[in-house]
Every structure is written in C-alpha cells, then in structure tokens.
Amino acid sequence: MKLIVNADDFGYTRAVTYGIVDAFQNGIVTSTTMMCNSPHIDHAVELANQNPDLGVGVHLVLTSGTPLSQAVPSITDPNGSFYSQHVIFNHAEPEDIEREWTAQVERFLATGLSPTHLDSHHNVHEHDLALPIAISIADKYGLPLRRANNEPKTAINYNTVKQTTFMMRDFYGEQVSYETLEGQLRNVSQLNEDETVEINCHPAYIDSDLVSKSSYIDTRLKEYEILTSDRIKNYVHELGIQLMNYRML
C-alpha cells in the first residue's frame, strides 16, 4: 500500500507555504501543489528548491484571486477577480478555463521546477464542465491528475492519464481529527501493495494575509499539528504504509 499525502495551496500566503514545508520536513506530508496565480509564487519556488524531495505540482485555480490570462471574461467578475466556487460554473466557458489553466501550468514551468502532477483549488476539476479540460491538459503535459472522485467511470475517463487508485478527502473541516486521519490510514493499510491513495490536506501557519482571503483558517493549524505529531508518524510506521509523491506513481 502506497500513500501520497498532498498539501494543497502552496504559495497561497507566506505562512501557508512555511507550514506546508514544515509538515513535509517534520510530518507525513510528501507532496504539495502550487497556486501559480499567487503573488507569493517566488517565495514558494525558493522553498521548493530548498526541499527537492517534496513533490510539487500545480494547483489549478479557478475560484481564488485573479487570472494570469488577459481575455477570459466568462470566469471573472466585473472587478477582474475569479468568481466564487458557488457561482463560477454559472458563467464559465470551456475555452476560458482551458486558456487560464494552461497559463498557470506554463507559469509553473517558467520557474524551472518540474511539476509532479495536477489538481485543483476547491476540487473544481470534478465539475462536468472542467474535468475534460483538466484531463486534456494533464495528457498534453504528460502529468498525473488527482482523481476527481472515486467513481469507476471517472477512472475510465482519465484514459492514459495517471491517477491514484483512490482519493481520500475526509480530513477537512469539522472532520479534522486524529481519529479521522487514523481511520484513513487504516483503510490505506488494507489495500494491495500495488494500489495507491492520495490523502488531501491543508496544513498551514496563519498570517493576516490568509485571514483576509480565506474562510478556512484555524483548522489549517490543527491539520498541521496532527500531521506532524509523533502519534500519526508512529502509526504510519506501525501500519507499514509506504509514503511517496506523484513523481513515484
């Protein structure tokens, strides 16, 4: 049984980036994904270069901040910001999503880093409109793509695009606890040796920048504390789970 523990939102704020790196250095996090439209991308790249064993992919953004592309009117509000996750697909046109997500991948490549995989902020690539676009971009760049869900038909749609066998997203919000994570780890330990799982997480430190633009704040620090605890690290060892990142998929 092989496990990827991916921390979303690398580069969102400086404190978030520091928290993710610490959760990698001192916890069970093995992978992260960068928000390439963030003003803090240079800081994230600097820390990524200092930690080459941390897998870093692209966190495709459609619902936070502003786009990298110029003419993508269907995904931006009158102020030029992305629509919120609650209304984005009431407006979005496929060509604008593809243009912007391609620009984000190209921005990542321009840093000199080699991306391990693709996923998306707020898991928007699960949406019926966005999933074919994400699959197409992953195929174009030869990158694995996070499983949008665990439905068999989704795996078939991925075709030759690499993916994990399962995706676990319960370690979030009110469900963030030792018991939730330990339950996920037990489920991982019961799989076959050739099966792979991603556990999604959002560890972080907190700064005023995060407070100003996210509704998910204090729980990120709780996630960090659990993911770096001796209790969880020892449990992973006891279960014989092999930690990996998407580069090893």
Structure keywords:
about 250 residues, alpha/beta, TIM Barrel, 7-stranded parallel beta sheet, 9 helices, 7 strands, about 40% helix, about 15% strand, globular
Q: What name does the CATH topology carry? A: TIM Barrel
Number of spatially distinct domains:
1
Q: Specify the CATH homologous superfamily.
A: Glycoside hydrolase/deacetylase
Radius of gyration: 17 Å
Strand content bin: 5-15%
Q: State the share of residues found in helices, binned by percent.
A: 25-40%
Largest sheet: 7 strands, parallel
Secondary structure tally: strands: 7
Reading off the top of the CATH hierarchy, the class is best stated as: Alpha Beta
Strand and helix map with partners:
Blueprint lengths: L1 E9 L3 H13 L4 E4 L6 H10 L4 E6 L33 H17 L7 E3 L10 H11 L10 H7 L7 E3 L9 H12 L6 E6 L6 H6 L4 H10 L2 H10 L2 E3 L5
Parallel strand pairs: 1-2, 1-6, 1-7, 2-3, 3-4, 5-6
Structure description:
This protein is an alpha/beta fold and 249 residues long. It has one domain: Glycoside hydrolase/deacetylase (TIM Barrel), CATH 3.20.20.370. The chain is 39% helix and 14% strand. It is built from nine helices and seven strands, in the order βαβαβαβααβαβαααβ. Strands 1, 2, 3, 4, 5, 6 and 7 form a seven-stranded parallel β-sheet that branches. The longest helix is centred in the middle third of the chain and has 17 residues. It is globular and about 50 Å long. It starts with a strand and ends in a 5-residue tail after the last strand.
Quick summary:
Homodimer. By secondary structure, the protein is an alpha/beta fold.
